[in-house]
Structure formats: C-alpha cells, structure tokens
Amino acid sequence: MTGTEGVLTVDLGAVSANWRQLAAMAPGAVGAAVKADGYGLGAVPVARALLAAGCRHFFVAHLSEGVAVREAVGPGPMIAVLNGFPPGIAGAEGLVPVLNGLPDVAAWTAAARQAGRALPALLHVDTGMARLGLDVVELERVAGDHGLLAGLDLRYVMTHLACADVPEHPLNSEQARRFGAACARLPAVPRSFANSSGLFLGPDFASELGRPGCALYGINPTPGRPNPMQQAARLEAPILQVREIPAGAAVGYGASWVAPRPSRIATVAAGYADGYLRALSGQATGILAGRSVPLVGRVSMDLITFDVTDVPLPAPGDRIGLIGPGQTPDDLAAAAGTIGYEILTSLGVRYRREYIGA
Ligand SMILES: *Cc1c(COP(=O)(O)O)cnc(C)c1O
Which residues pair with 8 in a beta bridge? Predict the structure, then answer.
C-alpha cells in the first residue's frame, strides 16, 4: 500500500542554477529570499543548496525562519530578517534585523549602547510602497542627524520595488531616483535594491546586493517575455479511484460539471487544503500518461476530479501531474487569477517533499 499523499519534487539543481544565472548577471552580490519556507519548496534544503552554490546572504520574513536557516547554513552567511525583531531575544544572535522605521532604529541603538558594542542591522527606506521602511519624515530626521544611527553596524541600506514586474511602470525609475537621493544623505554603506524582476531592469537598479526570491524557484521574473529561469517544482498526486459515469451525471460539489458523454473520471488526492486553489475549479488540467486531462467539477478540500475518458486504462495509484513543465506555477496562477508566488507558497504540508539535484 503506497501513501495517498501527493509528491512535490524539488529540483535543487534548478534552484542553484537559477541563482548562479542571476549572480552572473548582476554587477553586485546576489543573495536569496528564502522566506515562507523557501516559497513553499523548503527553506532548509534550498538554503543548503544555495550555500553550496556560493550564496552568502539570505533573507527571511520572521525571526523563527531565520533561526531555521541559520541551523541550515552555519555561522558564516548573513541572514537578514525583513520584518525585523526586537533586540535582546535569546537565540537571535547572528540574525540581522531590518530596521523598518525610527522606532526600530531607537530600540536597536539603545540596545547597542547597553551592550557596549555595535549591533549589525539593515536600514530600510521606503521609496514608494508605503509598506515598511523609513518614511520621508523619518528619513529627513536621520539624514539631518547621523548620530541617530550611533552604535549600529549598518550592513546595507535597502529599499523594495513595487512594480518591478512591469518594466515600463514610471514608479520604477522614480523609486531608483528616490533611493539614490536617500542613500546620498545617509551614511555611506552598501545598498540592496532589486528583487528578482528588478535584476532585469537595467543598471539603474544595480546595487551591492540583489535580493531575488521568485526567480530562484522558477517563477518568471519577466512576465510577458519568455521565462529565463528553470522550473524547480514538480507536483504529482495519485489517482484514488477511476469510475465510469453516464452522460448527464454530475461530478463534485454543487453538481457544477455534468458529463456531456459517457465519461471516465479519476479522483485524485489533492485539494484546496493542499493549496490546489478552489479557484482552479474547471480551469486547470493534469498530465496523465503524457496527455492533458481537464479538471472537472469543483476542487474539494482533499480531492479533485479529472476527465480521463480519452486515456487508455488509467488505474488507481497512477500519478497525475499537477505542476510540471507543461503546467508551471505561473500557468496555474493565470488559471486561478493569482500569481505564481501564491501557488508556490500555498503548496500544502501534506505533500511528501522529495529533493533531487542537490
Ligand atoms: C520577498 C521579497 C524579496 C524577493 O522578491 P521576489 O519578487 O520574490 O524576487 C525581496 N525583497 C523584499 C523586501 C521582499 O519582501
């Protein structure tokens, strides 16, 4: 008896190759965003693979993610925590907070004074996202008095692009201009600017440290143009049952799909609880025996159904491909009305993760 769970195969060779490709392209150093469990693919194996490839800067969102990545990569690399964290937390040593506003700066300079030594930090300047980072008033204050940063070992000044995936968007060059102006008024430290898409925007977006995430995992950082990255995720789930139904029979919740002809239906062990989004109902396909088979009926919590009428002899235990070369995370995202990031970061914990290419 094999397990009924789906299998998510992560190609660490592809992730590493993607990182090398970006690192070769960028004029400065290139790190890796491994937040959200490495965009759903596993932060620890991904970080280890990237370390072996030469990556020395990792970005996570939360302290707990940083602790896990530190265990994976050892003491050397920089691990920056984008959402920041208060000083003095046991176990946070060696993790570098991103300071996202003056209150963060005040807390860390006070901690540095108390510790009697400089504390490492990244300083985040908002240049047009109004999400995190020093706003214009806070920037004015720090620019007018660098003493406000006393005791901080500032590793990088960073900002984040809002529209990097739309190269012609006017906010891109505006953010580059504002970032340049901000850096000119701050202490001279290296800058960290581009995310994945930003690395493709040209020299105005170069910095001493890029912070790509999605492109490492195979998401197209240049939407509308051919994807320059390698696919890193393959998802397959087993058929639990195959049944024959007459024309006119309905499939699934809401009886939303009615067989137009006598049909063969394969019920597969994945559902919206696994991140196979309910919005995909009627919009996606699977790959079975090299053929594309349409998803029919609604996506349920743990089950989905495919019309496999045209496939010879499908059997329970056969695996249907849900994500792969023929149906990338970006393809699924388009079908569900979302972005590849959400497809990957929704990949459920019930899938068995297998790693290849390490
Ligand atoms: C997530 C994130 C990144 C990586 O962005 P991608 O679009 O996935 O390359 C970089 N910087 C910050 C601040 C982020 O939050």
Answer: 235, 353
Collapsing DSSP to helix, strand or coil, 292 comes out as strand
Please tell me the distance between residue 162's alpha carbon and the centre of ligand 1 in angstroms.
10
3-state secondary structure of 213: coil
The b-or-e profile of 237-254 (16+ CB within 10 A means b, else e) is bbbeebeebeeeeebbee
Q: Which residues line ligand 1 (CB under 6 A)?
A: 33, 35, 82, 160, 195-196, 211-214
Q: What residues does 127 pair with on adjacent strands? A: none
Ligand 1 nearest atom to the CA of residue 61, by list position: 15
Decide: 6 and 238 in contact? Cβ < 8 Å: yes
Q: Supply the pTM of this predicted model.
A: 0.97
N residues, the chain: 358
> Which residues are known binding-site members for substrate?
131, 301
Q: Does residue 137 carry a pLDDT above 90?
A: yes
Task: From the candidates 217, 253, 351, 355, give the one annotated as an active-site residue.
Answer: 253
Domains of the chain: 31-217 (3.20.20.10), 233-356 (2.40.37.10)
* 18-31 confidence digits (pLDDT tens): 999 999 999 999 99
Q: Encode pLDDT of 304-340 as tens digits.
A: 999 999 999 999 999 999 999 889 999 999 999 999 9
